[in-house]
Write a structure and sequence with these properties.
Layout: H1 2-17, H2 19-38, E1 65-77, E2 80-92, E3 113-119, E4 128-134, E5 139-143, E6 147-150, E7 158-165, E8 168-174, E9 180-187, E10 194-202, E11 206-211, E12 214-218, E13 221-230, E14 238-242, E15 252-256, E16 259-264, E17 267-270, H3 289-310, H4 313-319, H5 323-359, H6 369-397, H7 400-411, H8 413-420, H9 424-433, H10 466-490
Length: 493
């Protein structure tokens, strides 16, 4: 143990006495922070006086939500049920920004929704349960924004029923109004004794990727025709546009025989960042990670190759012939220095970067303290393990230029190509199998199957979970380090 401690001290002395490496590590931190603070976008939140602040409703689970839809409702006092048939659900051309009709073809987005809903009043973000027909995802029962259960996959007209018994709401469907199938039951402990129940229609943003880093996003509109409405009246029917309307969006309701025809836009779902959502996440503040990583990769390879270039490796081996310990000490020093440097830089840019974005009028989705800690520590670990991988490549290849090139091609290039030029499918594949998969540790918001969005790296989403992506980098590093140790023990200095 004493021998290894001395080796660590010797390798640390080598590192700190080479001015270029110290300057390079400092430059890596500066670039990571600088790009993160300077690349923030511009927005309008809070820029147009009182009332222009961007505030999203918060759901029962504490998460930010989108809660905008057309709602025809009446009071439900105590227990009861409501039944209706969704005769048709169709799309409409997206409106122009001024609200007038456009000449584009009608579009029914996959997660357009129409059905029955019970809700704690009309306040956005309040507890609810709904059973619905969707654009292409069949019949669903959803409640409190994050919960989603599939019913049948049918897109033909469906009968729907919601039944309340105490704090439990049950959703059911039928093809003919006679034989019913229960989809699920939701427990809503915050639902008051008098709730609002009725019909709803909504349709989320339409988003389409044009290239790796560009997309289009426009409002969408859905129209639902309801008939065979069966509901003992506890009061008159009232039409509400929950969440209000945005420019270019509107909702309407018209009584038609024994039902209604509703037009709606918006969504009832968790709020997301990206083409189909709004705002930014703390992941966007870490855009400079790739540039800082390049500096650290160069230093990592040179920490190994410099001794070969100058012939000092013979002196090192003469002083301590335990080659495995030498390689372990080098990995510990370069990994430790890189981790601490990355930890400080990431903490600064995540903390200050959010303030910069908000100051520029950009809405930043808040992250929990645990998520922020994971993103900061994960970024530092990403940099550290990448530097150790670069060190292993330096030991294997012995030439700085070759080792640096291989390291950048393996770790940095897949990320840059995915963010800029590669088709989305190819980029997602690369971010599953290359060391660049570790950038997933920077994802700060979850993906939701029931929310249509472009879950791509340029929006802060990665194909693997944070720690699964990091495990890919660990696997590459362990394999390369093992091969480097094998070759190091069997080659002449």
């Amino acid at each position: 143990m004493t021998g290894f401690t001395q080796l660590l001290h010797a390798e640390w002395t080598k590192f700190r006495t080479v001015r270029g490496w110290v300057i390079g590590m400092t430059a890596a931190a500066a670039v990571l922070v600088g790009l993160g603070l300077l690349s923030g976008g511009q927005g309008s939140c809070g820029k147009n006086g009182p009332g222009s602040e961007c505030v999203l409703p918060v759901g029962p689970g504490g998460q930010e939500v989108t809660d905008r839809f057309t709602f025809v409702h009446q009071p439900l006092v105590g227990d009861g049920s409501i039944t209706v048939r969704v005769a048709a659900l169709t799309g409409a051309p997206p409106p122009r920004p001024d609200g007038t009709a456009s000449n584009e073809p009608a579009r029914l987005v996959p997660w357009a929704k129409a059905g029955l809903l019970i809700k704690d009043g009309t306040r956005p973000g309040s507890t609810y349960a709904a059973v619905m027909v969707t654009g292409v995802h069949g019949v669903r029962m959803q409640h409190d924004y994050t919960h989603d259960r599939a019913g049948s996959s049918s897109s033909s007209p469906r009968w729907l029923r919601l039944t309340r018994a105490g704090d439990r709401v049950t959703g059911a469907e039928s093809a003919d109004g006679s034989r019913w199938t229960t989809i699920g039951t939701a427990r809503l402990p915050d639902l008051p004794s008098t709730a609002q129940v009725g019909l709803f229609t909504t349709s989320p943003q339409y988003a389409e990727a044009l290239a790796a880093a560009s997309a289009i996003s426009t409002p969408s509109v859905a129209t639902a025709t309801f008939d065979h409405l069966d509901r003992p009246a506890d009061g008159p029917w009232k039409t509400s546009t929950i969440g209000g309307s945005r420019p270019g969006e509107s909702g309407t309701a018209e009584r038609t025989g024994d039902g209604f025809t509703l037009t709606g836009t918006g969504d009832i779902a968790p709020s997301v960042a990206g083409a189909a959502g709004s705002g930014a996440t703390i992941t966007q503040t870490l855009i400079g990670t790739f540039a800082g990583l390049i500096f650290m990769v160069v230093i990592g390879t040179m920490f190994a190759t410099a001794e070969y270039r100058r012939g000092l490796i013979r002196t090192t081996l003469a002083a301590n012939p335990a080659r495995g310990q030498i390689l372990a000490a080098k990995a510990a020093v370069i990994g430790g220095v890189t981790f601490l440097t990355g930890l400080v830089a990431a903490a600064i840019v995540v903390t200050v970067g959010q303030s910069v974005l908000r100051g520029n009028g950009v809405y930043v989705h808040p992250a929990t303290l645990g998520t922020e800690v994971r993103v900061v520590a994960g970024t530092a670990a990403l940099l550290a393990v990448a530097a150790v991988l670069a060190l292993a490549l330096g030991v294997l290849l012995r030439r700085s230029t070759t080792a640096v090139t291989v390291a950048i091609v393996a770790i940095v290039l897949p990320y840059l190509l995915t963010m800029s030029v590669l088709p989305i499918g190819v980029g997602q594949w690369l971010l599953r199998i290359t060391p660049a998969a570790a950038f997933a540790v920077q994802q700060s918001t979850p993906e939701y199957d029931q929310v249509a969005n472009l879950y791509i790296p340029s929006n802060g989403y990665f194909p693997l979970s944070p720690w699964a992506g990091f495990a890919v980098l660990l696997g590459w590093t362990a394999a390369t380090l093992g091969l480097a140790a094998y070759r190091f023990n069997r080659r002449d200095a």
